[in-house]
Amino acid sequence: MTPTLLLATDLSRECHAAFSRAIRLAADSGARLDILHVIDPWLPGTARPGVDEAIEAEIERTVEGLCATHGVARPELQIQIVPGDAYAEIVREAYERGTQLAILGTHRKHGQADLVNGTTLSRVLRRAPCPVLSITHTADFRWHDVLVPIDFSLASRYILKEVLTRLPGVRLTLLHAWDMPVSRELSADSGYRRWREQERARLRQQLERELERLMGELDTEPDIELVVEQGDPTEVLLNRLVQQPPDLLALGSHGRLGIGQRAPSSLMERLLSEARCDLMLCRTW
C-alpha cells in the first residue's frame, strides 16, 4: 500500500512553508499526498460549487509552483474540501486514511502561550493518531540538527525510532533531564556534589546502554550526541531551545513533559509559543 501524507492547509501565508515541506516529503518518499482544506460549515449550499472550484484551482496552482521551485515531479495527489470544524476534520481524515504523517502550518503566537491553547494546531497535535509536523521553515531549509528529549519511557523510545526511520542522516542530540529535590539547598555540600556527579555518570551509562540496545534493534549507527542535565525537564528543554536551537524538535506525547495536559501553561502551549524550530510530535498511545 502506498504510504499517505496528509497536508491540512487553509491556504494562508502562514501555511505556505508547510505546503512546501509536504511537497518535498512526498516527492522524496514516493508517498501519496492528501491535501485537506476545511471550509465554513455554514456556507450556503448554492455557494459551494464555486467556492470548491476556486479552492481546488488555488491548490493546483500552489502544487505546480512548488514542484517547479524544488525541481521535483508532481506527487500523487488527492484534494479533499470538506465543511466542518477544522480540528475534528483533520483528525478524522488522519484516522480514516491511515495517514503515516500529518503536516500543518503554524499560526503560532510567539510569546503568548495563552493564545495557543485550544487552537487547531494544538488540538491536532494532541489527538492525531499519527506523527504530526508543525512547520515554520520551508523545504529549502534542510533539517540537519534534530533535538529529541528522552527518558526511560516507551514514549521516548518510540519517538527516537520514528526519527531514525523517517530522517536518516540527521545529527541527533538526545537530551535527558533529571531533577532532584532540595538540590539548591544542598548545592554547597561537598558530599552532595560528589553524589550528584556520580548519579550523572550512572544515568549517562544507563542511557548509553539503552541506546546501544536500540541501535542494535534498528541496525543503524547515526550521529548522536547524548546530553545529560540536572533540572526541571520542562525548563531544561526550553532553555536548550533558546541557547542551542535545533532545526527540528521531536518528542513523544506523554504526561511527564506536560504534553496532553489542558492547562494553559503546559509544555505544548509553551513550545508552540516560544520555540522557533519545526516541531514533530508523536502520540505514543
Automatic annotation (TrEMBL):
Pfam families per record: Usp
Entry-linked InterPro entries: Rossmann-like_a/b/a_fold, Universal_stress_UspA, UspA
Domain (UspA): residue spans on this chain: 2-133, 144-283
Highest taxon in the source lineage: Bacteria
Recorded family membership: Belongs to the universal stress protein A family.
Protein name: Nucleotide-binding universal stress UspA family protein
Organism for this UniProt entry: Kushneria sinocarnis
